[in-house]
Task: structure prediction
Amino acid sequence: MKKVILSIIFLFFVFQVCIFGQIPQGYYNSIDGKQERELKTALHKILKNHTQLSYNDLWWYFRTTDVRPGTSEVWDMYSNTVRYYVPATNSGYSVSGMNKEHSLPRSWWNNDNLPAYSDLHHLYPSDADANSHKSNYILGKVNSPSWTNNVTRIGKNAYAYSGAPTVTAFEPANEYKGDFARAYMYMVTCYEDFAPLWRSDALQMFDNVTYPVFKPWAKQMLLEWHRNDPVSPKERNRNEEVFHYQNNRNPFVDFPQLAEYIWGDSVNYTFNLSGEVVAKSPVLVTPVNLTDLFFGEIQKNSEVSRSITLKGYYMTENVSVKIWSKNSDFFSLSSISAPASAVNSEAGYEIEIFYNPTEYGEHTTSLVIQDGGMDGTVCVYLKGICSANPSAVIPPEAQSPDVYVQNNVITFRTYAPNDSVYIYNSLGKIMHSETGTGKWQEFRCPQSGMYIIQLNGKTRKILVKE
Result:
């Protein structure tokens, strides 16, 4: 039996401490000893220079930022309708009946060229009907809704505080009010320089100033929502995922007490970073949920393997690994359990996955990773192809069926002719673009390093070595 050992190193490792499931050392140092408006401005300087994402790629990001643990179900904060992420099509990963929703309406600053337009910290998948009814309305308290789906409520604002306008408002479910409050706090902090741009319905909640930004009634309501709906595991996990892509964090998720120091009951005190505690919950950083692992095309009764590294933080017990669903008989594991101490270590814990097909055809199954104290599970899709005469059309070292790298050459193919391909360097500068042919094409990288390719509705990070 011929055995080919192929190893994948998940590319996120190249970012080292900046991408692992914890706040990078020194990330918040500049806010130490600050208070009130100076504290907010110090945070603004940390957050503002983030990676600007492509709005067209948001459904790819949502697959890891907004999925219910252990499933492929979309986590929708706007409705109770159950929908699922599906494999990529030529149009990408969009989910029927859903929109990409700006929780803080983009009409409030009216410039789609600014990074806020695609900022994941305030963008969520949303039921299209709920999104349509939400329109550009302010947040508020709705007692007599003109429209509701039992999650989203639309109607006149009835928040009982001096100066609160009785205009049409959007009220989220109680379990998500803190999420929306912290998203708004992030937006007016990251984009503090938007002060003169706020317009339209924004001026019902905001003033055109950098501090405090929120009108008194809005500040009071958002602080109430923030206090009554504390940071959840969902938000902490989402914050880590957004950080992977965007390279900035929501500080009001990391340090919920910051809201009090900037707008609440602690404005007369300086923020002492060393004395503050970050909520720490078990999180698995690699592999990333709902990603693909491809084993290439091989003959029947031969074997190929790939390895993954389980890397996480704050695991409290062993992490379990299993292969589940159809075609599971064609895949096996070197280990079904990873010690918590090894997963938490710098190197992580490596597990080898074997593909040994005894029937011809395409074989897809799921690798399920759970326990360790985590909330929910992580799923990786495994795929291999068994044929009588492997054509090598898909190279065995391919990271997926549509892209791989050898030396300094990225080889890729589109699912259909005329699809666009874009390749960027690690700083987001475009290095190459062309129209796909539906066949294998190449790009020779001018130097080693991290590259980002947008292809077939996906955005992938690729490490190129000399």
Summary: The longest strand covers residues 303-313. The two ends are 33 Å apart (CA to CA). The chain has a mean pLDDT of 86.
